[in-house]
Design a protein that fits this description.
Elements: H1 2-7, H2 12-19, H3 23-31, H4 38-47, H5 82-92, H6 97-117
């Protein structure tokens, strides 16, 4: 939720007002202190112009044991450094589909190179 909100340049106060809650409630949602019900998630998705499934991308999978497995590669499963948020904001401003795809390919190639060299 925080990633989408900040990428769109929406403040916690503005999101709270659109949802009819306090900004402290939005903070609690973003920190995971309070659960977000299905109806509220629908509202958040509408306000942030994203399908509800957007907020599940990279979420931990529930395996047959009922235990949640960590999603190690998900940007949404951990707090991003400031550079990560800056990258997302900048990426979302690229309107040309081919250019956006090229940037994504470049970042993936750099990540693979970093993994194989053992740096990180």
């Amino acid at each position: 939720m925080r990633l989408r909100r900040t990428a769109l340049g929406v403040t916690q106060e503005r999101l709270a007002q659109a949802l009819g809650v306090t900004f402290q409630q939005v903070q609690k949602y973003e920190k995971g202190a309070n659960r977000i019900g299905a109806g509220r998630l629908q509202e958040i998705a509408r306000v942030l112009d994203a399908p509800p499934s957007f907020f599940y991308e990279g979420a931990p999978e529930i395996v047959s044991t009922g235990v949640r497995e960590p999603a190690h590669t998900s940007a949404t499963s951990v707090m991003l450094p400031a550079e990560g948020l800056q990258l997302i904001k900048a990426f979302m401003t690229i309107r040309d589909d081919r250019l956006r795809s090229s940037v994504l390919d470049l970042v993936r190639a750099l990540a693979r190179q970093s993994e194989s060299s053992g740096s990180g």
